[in-house]
Exodeoxyribonuclease 7 small subunit (Hippea maritima), 72 residues
Amino acid sequence: MKSFEEALKRLEEIAKRLENENIMLDEAIGLYEEGMKLVEFCSKKLEEAENRIKTIKSIENGKIQTEDFNDE
């Protein structure tokens, strides 16, 4: 598929297009479906990034201890 940034840019384009009062129903539905797929893609990418982020917990015996990122 595309990168997170490309997907986000496309979502912005879709949102602008859907705000247009002159959009046909079939086009709006198609754009909505595409947008929902992009939202799912972006959510997965963010989840993957979150899982990769580590915070340095402490340094013991010359070794760096890490723990999973936690957004508390």
Notes: Residues 25-52 form the longest helix (28 residues). The chain has one domain: 4-68. Residues 4-68 form one domain.
